[in-house]
């Protein structure tokens, strides 16, 4: 018998922590002023409406306060954050044209390989700008548009973007939407025409390399009626001894009888403040699926939200958060039922260890007109030691009699009975415990394409060494 | 001077837009103290000795201090039921303290009511200390007339092996704000809160219930069931808090709410907070309309739909009342429920 005991190791960050030299990058000065916002707008060659929008957002930001709930962000000082860092390259359409060091970083992260084997298109953002964007010709011929946001803003879909930009996530919603509106840069625009089903996923990968920088990419996806898309988002950064900031916005429009799956594997470094916003609007018969893995960052505020506007629209959220030492992850989801016969199914899991803090925050609102609404929320938390913390904060706000709403939450440690059962079937205690922890995360990894499930497993690294608890 | 107080604060808070982080209550001026303790065998106590945290919290404590409501210790006669029934005719504020010594059992029943169309407020805070191996059974009926605002607040501390059982029945009348907090301070302490509620005609019920597990092998349960109709609003905040060191503790909260039309607002906020590894915490909620097959069954037996729904309302109240340990208190509460549904 092995002398090693089961050990749930911290996330192995070796591949994420490689730092590229950014001495040739163009940076605006630190802080957030009207002059900086104007300079970003100049750099982006914004249309006039966007420049005005940015300046208005800055005013809103300056008037707003940080929320009075959630983890502390005292360590984040906007006066020392670089809001715009442009790598010394233009956006390329082949990896060979991407500068060697940046290409190597994405190679280590497996992005070009994934593109070759399992993706219909890839966008790769490095600090504030995209350095690579490409899509398979076959998908392009279906009429699918997948491009960097700045190109879209000036191209065929400029009016559509003007119409939709930050309407789902208005800058008045909260302080960090306003910040995003003022300094956003990069991100992707995806348009899937009516009836088009994209059989393999598109992926955007966001890499923040510069020390003390912020990343503010904007993702806007429109899936027209009867269309189907799977979009994957990945993000990472090397660790620094100063704060970095991520404040992206993701706006998703799901048409009638359309389906959108949005998968995220988030692996920011432990100096990152991840203040991200995501929202989907789902029309009649549409379906929104969220798959979310939160593994990195020092502090996270992340609650993908869904508005089930159309009758018979549906939403499913599957999420896992893993908080280790020095991490305070406040994650969850929100759903608003507006249409008749809408349904939402939510499964969240969290694992806390080594003093890590997990808060699962959810809200389900069923409005009076949402007759026949159904919602079921399940929150499961696993505590691997008594230094850690795990809170569950759900809210259900139900305003119609014709609804069926269920909620269940459990918190606990590894069950001795389950371990005993497996041991009685011949497994060692160490193997039994490892299997239970691995199985706890299984429902999320099963929802991901194989390559990404493997990445998630790499992130959790359930190693057969040491001891639990 | 009339003032607005903020009570029933959610700790930790959540999104402000959901309006569940606390509740604002308009309180009248000139509250009279000593109404609830009138006729009871009481003695003054040192306020510092009864600094027990409650469900309504600091906002109510400040208000009680300002209005001169001092805690008094109420003496009980062994396990003989102590009944405190008050028909509120003026605005009142009182703090009653109860203490069950080692191995003792005490039974308390409170019944707050008022005449129709009053415009007053009743504020009653009950503080309970349950010593080692003691048992405290508290049954409460709150059935205010129209216009009486009721603030019903409880704070308890349970020592080793102590048991605190609280059963509350909230019916009709006007707005009720209810707080309850139990600190399970001693090893193997146990506490149970059962609430049956019926709210209708625009009435509000705002609740904040906290079970704090501070010692190993403590056990707690919160169970809320009821029905809402005709613009009634209910907010239930239920918190199970496992503090580091409370290993092998078990906390559960369950809610079953019937929503009888689409004018009601039902908010449920069931928190589980945990800094201890070896615990089991759970929450379950079912919220929605009455099951059609159940209604159909009753209608097939000649019961009208309206009457079937009233049977379900009554069942929710009686389900809570049946958990009252003291037989006399149980019968008292069941009689009140029967009287309410006398015409059915």
Descriptive account of the structure:
By secondary structure, chain A is of the alpha/beta class. Chain A contains twelve helices and 27 strands. Chain A has helices at 34-44, 48-63, 100-108, 111-118, 137-141, 149-154, 158-164, 175-183, 416-424, 429-440, 442-445, 450-460; strands at residues 7-8, 26-27, 85-86, 121-126, 129-135, 145-148, 188-192, 202-207, 214-215, 218-223, 228-236, 244-246, 249-254, 259-267, 272-275, 277-282, 287-294, 299-302, 305-308, 314-323, 328-337, 343-352, 357-366, 373-383, 389-398, 403-412, 462-463. In chain A, the strands form four sheets. In chain A, strands 6, 7, 9, 10, 12, 13, 15, 16, 18, 19, 21, 23 and 25 form a 13-stranded mixed sheet that branches. In chain A, helix 1 runs antiparallel to helix 2 (48-63). Chain B starts with a strand and ends with a helix. Chain B is 14% helix and 46% strand. Chain B is globular and about 60 Å long. Chain B has helices at 58-66, 292-300, 305-321, 327-340, and strands at 3-7, 23-27, 42-44, 71-74, 82-88, 92-100, 105-114, 121-130, 135-143, 149-158, 163-171, 176-184, 190-199, 204-213, 219-228, 233-242, 250-259, 265-274, 280-288. The longest helix of chain B has 17 residues, at 305-321. In chain B, helix 3 (305-321) packs antiparallel against helix 4. Chain B has a nine-stranded mixed sheet, with no helix packed on it. Chain B contains four helices and 19 strands. By secondary structure, chain B is mainly beta. Strand 25 (389-398) of chain A pairs antiparallel with strand 18 (265-274) of chain B.
């Amino acid at each position: 018998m092995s002398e090693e005991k089961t050990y749930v190791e911290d996330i192995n960050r070796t591949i994420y922590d490689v730092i590229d030299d950014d001495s040739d990058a163009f940076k605006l000065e630190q802080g957030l002023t009207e002059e900086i916002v104007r300079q970003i707008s100049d750099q982006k060659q914004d249309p006039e409406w966007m420049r005005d929008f940015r300046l208005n957002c800055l005013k809103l930001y300056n008037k707003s306060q940080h929320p009075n709930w959630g983890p502390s962000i005292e360590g984040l000082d906007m006066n020392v954050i670089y809001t715009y860092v442009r790598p010394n390259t233009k956006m390329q359409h082949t990896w060979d044209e991407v500068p060697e060091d940046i290409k190597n970083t994405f190679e280590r992260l497996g992005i070009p390989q994934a593109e070759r084997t399992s993706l219909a298109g890839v966008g790769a953002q490095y600090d504030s700008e995209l350095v690579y964007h490409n899509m398979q010709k076959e998908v392009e011929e279906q009429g699918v548009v997948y491009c960097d946001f700045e190109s879209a803003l000036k191209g065929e879909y400029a009016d559509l973007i003007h119409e939709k930009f930050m309407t789902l996530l208005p800058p008045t919603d909260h302080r960090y939407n306003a910040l995003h509106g003022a300094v956003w840069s990069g991100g992707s625009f995806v348009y899937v025409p009516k009836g088009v089903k994209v059989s393999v996923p598109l992926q955007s990968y966001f890499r923040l390399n510069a020390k003390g920088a912020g990343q503010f990419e904007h993702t806007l996806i429109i899936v027209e009626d009867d269309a189907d898309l799977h979009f994957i988002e990945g993000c990472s950064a090397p660790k620094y001894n100063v704060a970095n900031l991520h404040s992206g916005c993701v706006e998703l429009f799901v048409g009638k009888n359309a389906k959108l799956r949005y998968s995220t594997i988030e692996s920011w470094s432990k100096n990152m403040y991840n203040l991200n916003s995501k929202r989907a609007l789902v029309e009649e018969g549409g379906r929104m699926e969220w798959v979310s893995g939160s593994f990195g960052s020092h502090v996270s505020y992340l609650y993908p939200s869904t508005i089930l506007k159309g009758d018979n629209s549906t939403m499913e959220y599957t999420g896992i958060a893993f908080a280790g030492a020095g991490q305070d992850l406040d994650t969850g989801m929100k759903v608003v039922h507006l249409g008749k016969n809408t349904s939402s199914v939510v499964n969240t899991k969290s694992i806390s260890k080594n003093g890590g803090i997990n808060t699962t925050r959810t809200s389900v609102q069923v409005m009076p007109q949402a007759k026949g609404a159904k919602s079921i929320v399940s929150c499961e938390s696993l505590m691997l030691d008594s230094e850690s913390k795990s809170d569950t904060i759900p809210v259900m706000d139900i305003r119609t009699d014709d609804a069926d709403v269920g909620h269940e939450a459990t918190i606990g440690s590894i069950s001795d009975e389950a371990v005993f059962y497996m041991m009685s079937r011949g497994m060692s205690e160490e193997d039994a415990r490892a299997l239970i922890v691995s199985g706890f995360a299984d429902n999320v990894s099963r929802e991901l394409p194989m390559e990404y499930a493997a990445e998630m497993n790499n992130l959790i690294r359930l190693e057969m060494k040491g001891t639990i608890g | 001077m009339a003032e607005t107080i903020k009570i029933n604060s959610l700790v930790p808070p959540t999104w402000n837009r959901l309006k569940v982080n606390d509740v604002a209550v308009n309180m009248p001026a000139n509250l009279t103290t000593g109404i609830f303790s009138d006729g009871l065998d009481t003695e003054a106590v040192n306020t510092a000795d009864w600094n027990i945290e409650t469900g309504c919290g600091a906002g109510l404590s400040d208000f009680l201090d300002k209005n001169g409501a001092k805690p008094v210790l109420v003496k009980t006669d062994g396990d003989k039921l102590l009944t405190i029934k008050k028909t509120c005719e003026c605005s009142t504020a009182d703090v009653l303290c109860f203490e069950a010594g080692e191995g003792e059992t005490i039974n308390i029943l409170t019944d707050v009511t008022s005449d129709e169309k009053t415009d007053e407020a009743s504020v009653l805070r009950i503080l309970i200390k349950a010593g080692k191996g003691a048992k405290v059974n508290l049954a409460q009926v709150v059935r205010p007339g129209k216009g009486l605002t009721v603030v019903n607040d409880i704070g308890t501390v349970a020592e080793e092996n102590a048991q605190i059982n609280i059963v509350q029945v909230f019916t009709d009348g006007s707005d009720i704000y209810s707080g309850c907090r139990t600190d399970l301070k001693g090893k193997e302490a146990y506490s149970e809160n059962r609430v049956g509620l019926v709210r209708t005609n625009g009435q509000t019920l705002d609740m904040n219930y906290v079970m704090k597990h501070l010692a190993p092998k403590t056990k707690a349960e919160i169970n809320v069931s009821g029905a809402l109709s005709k613009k009634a609003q209910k907010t239930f905040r239920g918190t199970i808090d496992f503090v580091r060191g409370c290993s092998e503790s078990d906390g559960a909260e369950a809610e079953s709410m019937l929503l009888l039309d689409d004018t009601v607002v039902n908010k449920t906020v069931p928190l589980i907070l945990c800094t201890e590894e070896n615990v089991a915490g759970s929450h379950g909620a079912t919220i929605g309309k009455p099951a059609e097959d159940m209604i159909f069954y009753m209608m097939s037996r000649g019961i009208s739909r309206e009457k079937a729904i009233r049977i379900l309302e009554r069942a929710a109240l009686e389900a809570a009342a049946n958990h009252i340990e003291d037989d006399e208190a149980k019968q008292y509460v069941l009689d009140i429920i029967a009287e309410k549904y006398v015409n059915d």
